[in-house]
Amino acid sequence: MNDQNETLKHYSIDLMSVFSVTDPLGMLWHPIWVKGEDFASSVIYVGFLWNLRDHMVTLLDKNQLKYLGKVQAFQSNAKAKVSHKDVMAIHGTLQHITFVYRQGHSSLPPFSSFIAKFPNDFACHHFPRSVIEALTWWEAILQSLSGCCSLFPHPVIDQEVWVNVSTDWGIGIVLGHLWAAWRLKPSWRTDGCNIGWAESVALELAILWLIQAGHIYCNITIHGDNTRVIGAFNKGHSHNIPHNDSICHMATSLIPNNISISPVYVSSTSNKTNTISCSTLGPPSLWRLESIQLPAELEKFMSRLLAEARAKACSMSSGGLEAFVPPSLLLLETCASRPRLSSNPQN
Q1: Domain boundary among 127, 152, 177
Q2: 139 & 26 share domain
Q3: What radius of gyration do the chain's Cα atoms show?
Q4: Does residue 265 lie within any of the structural domains?
Q5: Which strands form 56-59's sheet, in the order they lie side by side?
């Protein structure tokens, strides 16, 4: 028995038992100290540490540093031309480690688009901006996160999370009996920002709320009524640049907390956030905007308006006649100011 009162199994066969059978047959093996190891509950294979007892797979530290160096080497040569072989190499490396960084596949479309531009193996091209931004994203991930993921299916939990967007008003989120809302600026449709992007931002804000509520190692159901956004999230990328940026922001939040999201489609009439996203708001006592810590690039658009909302909530709760209105999130400036991780091969 181990510390967790689990029964540990022992077997009579080991690697030497295998050799005793294969050696008389003249079968050749790589030196075991170079490529191989004896039977154990924890083994290294294809650059990952597989912990069979704890059902975890981890990117080896030396490989994490190696891949970080590879990414940084490409970044340092951003102004030079690269070959088809070079791009295929970095693309293959990043594809490999998305086995652990599951949400990282949202950063791969720019590489695929760039690879398609090479007419042959001898042509060379400059990196497009979208690839440079993807490399910057991977550099941040590999610098700050220890890559590991559970081999167990995540326990599925439904916290009654609902999201919706009204193009005429704004974004609404419901988590259980709590709610939050942001109003879209009238001129928010610019620079590629569309309803798909707004719905994706709603999903992103719901994820931030769940993480700040302490959820880890789980698969959380989120209800929404936009099938295109659900499809783009499940694929890990979108052809719309701001939408793809939002997916990458979600990946950055989900990876370190080992959370996966299962967006579920509901009809618009069944969506619990329909009224909130259309400006018919819930009671101030259940308003939880303050508990959602927005990313740094959004905070400067929220602080002054958040203070105004507090004053209005207090006015209403004390019997004042002023109507309660949630703060406006200046999504026009937000969309334009966020660091972009573009999937557009022309950028």
Answers
A1: 152
A2: yes
A3: 25
A4: yes
A5: 42-45, 48-51, 56-59, 148-150
